[in-house]
Amino acid sequence: MTNMPIAPSSVGTNAPPCSSRMQRQSRPVSASRRFVSAVAGTAAIALSLCGSPAFAGDPFRTTNQHAIGKNTEAAFKAIFERGDYQAARKYLSQAEPSEPLSYAMKASLAYLDKDWNALRTNATKTRETAEQLRKTDPLRGNLYVAVGEFMEGAYIVSREGTVRGTPQALNKLQRVFQSLNAAEKLSPQDPELNLVKGFMDLMLAVNLPFANPADAVERLNKYAQPRYLAYRGIAIGYRDLNQPTKALEFVDQALKVTPNNPDLYYLKAQVLVKQGKNQESLEFFRKALDKTAQLPRQLRNQIAYERCRTEFRIDQKERNCSTELKK
Length: 327
What we know:
Blueprint: E1 23-24, E2 27-28, H1 31-45, H2 70-82, H3 85-92, H4 100-113, H5 116-133, H6 138-186, H7 191-207, H8 213-223, H9 227-240, H10 244-257, H11 262-274, H12 278-289, H13 297-315
Antiparallel strand pairs: 1-2
């Protein structure tokens, strides 16, 4: 949900994945893109990694673990540990058909590819498989019903535009909150729930007036697991609250755990730009682009564009940054 991504990221995706991926000069280019980027990053963040021999991967809990399929787990490990979207696609092509996480990640990748039909199809599959999961695992079932509804709202805004699509998307959000509340009643301190809800609240706070980013940061800091994804979310929150010193602290904590993820290098570059450290940021733009083969084309192009704009701010030499973009 980086840079969620979205960027994921931030993803986003990202997020990043969750790191507000569709940005220009570190700012989202439109309300519609901000909303869709938030959704993609949020859904992606919900899906994670790290295995357990007794279960097919539960990175959130040390007790009362929940199982997911091994191919779904491998796909998320590829993205969130290594930022390798191409490897994730291969695993997702063989992912377990009853696991809503796999469809949520497919929807996130479709968003990054601007494949709106695939976004719609996989968002709906996320919701439908989660509705079935509620029968055996009501906590995660309700949680991913919310994710599916959230991404269906993103599809509506992406296709209808902000003016026409927002009323329908807001209706979806009402159902999102109903499902999240149902999950929260079952286990209010559940780390997976708090990770997903923290990212949702964080991204919505950037785009809508009724969410508080400070509350989302607190939720991520207190309850969310795994920690490096929580750190990443907190960094995004402080970036968007215009507190880059704190943002940098949490990016660095995330990098200590997952030091080879290009989404995190990109996020660190953005934070340094916010601090006015343009020259220093170029190292981290470069590190992110060194892993171009792993990245979706749209994400790679956004990183390259922002690096080009940063170089312009440093040397004030006219340049055509559109030449950095690849088809």
